[in-house]
């Protein structure tokens, strides 16, 4: 079942939207998002997804694959992010979603194993409901979808929730900060070669003006709704086909412990992939509406 919920809190198109952070922090539905267990990874390497690095088993336990069912076939062609046992966040441009697959690293094996042992088998869960905003297929504004799972995911070392932003992340200037972007998307955009292995790369957040020259007028990003994220010049690392809907996360030291927070969703970029900065949906803008819909 699909539900429409409107995400703009502005009085006019492209207006600067004011979000009351005190209302976000005090929202009663934070009780459904366990800050004591979210954002933990089995590994916290920060190496410097086009030609990215292979992710270790359990390094990104919040990343999921989302699938569309046609007949007896399920096409897992987008990614998403687990925020608790019941909900996943992904991109609206991925289209209708019917299934979620959790705890995956190598698409060719089940279960996945490394030198420390094997993960449990992947979890495949049907989708009960999706909630989406006033997505514009021309401008790609409001490229966000909230998924409610038909039954709860089972947590283990390889299936864990990401943290949603809170505290100083709500107001801090993040330009220049490095984020991590994992995915199973193409590693050769000219041949659209997708790896079986989960890959990731680190990239800096740019000011929004760094993206504007590369996109047509309709696709020029809005700083209230989107991030501009690139890679080191010449590195050719970035999101590509198959990474859509996946997480853009930041690693923070919280009381001496490394935690990961969801800042963005892979939205759009160049057809060549990674030759210019990409555009990511800005989670912070949508927090009030997401919290309203997360009710378990």
Could you characterize the architecture of this molecule?
The protein has helices spanning 21-25, 283-293; strands spanning 2-4, 53-54, 63-70, 73-82, 87-90, 99-102, 113-114, 117-118, 123-132, 145-149, 178-183, 199-206, 226-229, 247-254, 257-268, 278-282. It folds into two domains: 2-40 and 61-161 and 286-293, Trypsin-like serine proteases (Thrombin, subunit H), CATH 2.40.10.10; 167-283, Beta Barrel (Thrombin, subunit H). Strands 2, 11, 12, 13, 14, 15 and 16 form a seven-stranded antiparallel sheet that branches. It has a six-stranded antiparallel beta barrel with strand order 3-4-5-10-9-6. Strands 7-8 form a two-stranded antiparallel sheet. Strand 7 (113-114) and strand 8 (117-118) form a beta hairpin. It contains two helices and 16 strands. Helix content is 5%, strand content 31%. It has 296 residues and is mainly β.
Topology diagram in text:
Elements: E1 2-4, H1 21-25, E2 53-54, E3 63-70, E4 73-82, E5 87-90, E6 99-102, E7 113-114, E8 117-118, E9 123-132, E10 145-149, E11 178-183, E12 199-206, E13 226-229, E14 247-254, E15 257-268, E16 278-282, H2 283-293
Parallel strand pairs: 1-9
Antiparallel strand pairs: 2-12, 3-4, 3-6, 4-5, 5-10, 6-9, 7-8, 9-10, 11-12, 12-13, 13-16, 14-15, 15-16
């Amino acid at each position: 079942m699909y539900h429409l919920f409107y995400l703009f809190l502005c009085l006019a198109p492209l207006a600067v939207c004011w979000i009351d952070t005190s209302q976000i922090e005090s929202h009663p539905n934070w009780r459904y998002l366990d800050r004591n267990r979210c954002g933990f990874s089995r590994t916290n390497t920060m190496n410097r997804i086009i030609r990215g690095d292979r992710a270790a088993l359990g390094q990104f336990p919040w990343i999921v694959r989302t699938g569309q069912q046609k007949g007896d076939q399920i096409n897992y062609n987008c990614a998403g992010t687990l925020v608790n046992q019941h909900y996943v966040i992904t991109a609206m441009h991925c289209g209708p979603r019917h299934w979620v697959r959790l705890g995956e690293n190598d698409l060719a094996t089940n279960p996945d194993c490394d030198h420390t042992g094997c993960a449990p088998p992947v979890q495949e869960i049907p989708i009960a409901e999706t909630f989406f905003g006033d997505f514009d297929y021309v401008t790609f504004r409001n490229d966000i979808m909230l998924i409610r799972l038909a039954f709860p995911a089972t947590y283990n070392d390889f299936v864990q929730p990401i943290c949603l932003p809170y505290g100083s992340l709500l107001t801090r200037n993040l330009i220049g900060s490095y984020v991590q972007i994992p995915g199973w998307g193409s590693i050769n955009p000219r041949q659209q070669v997708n790896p079986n292995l989960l890959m990731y790369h680190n990239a800096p957040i740019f000011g929004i003006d760094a993206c504007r020259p590369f996109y047509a007028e309709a696709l020029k990003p809005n700083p209230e709704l989107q991030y501009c994220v690139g890679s080191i010049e010449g590195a050719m690392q970035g999101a590509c086909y198959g990474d859509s809907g996946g997480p853009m996360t930041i690693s923070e030291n919280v009381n001496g412990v490394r935690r990961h927070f969801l800042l963005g969703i892979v939205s759009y970029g160049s057809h060549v992939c990674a030759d210019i900065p990409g555009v990511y949906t800005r989670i912070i803008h949508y927090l009030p509406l997401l919290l309203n819909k997360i009710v378990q």
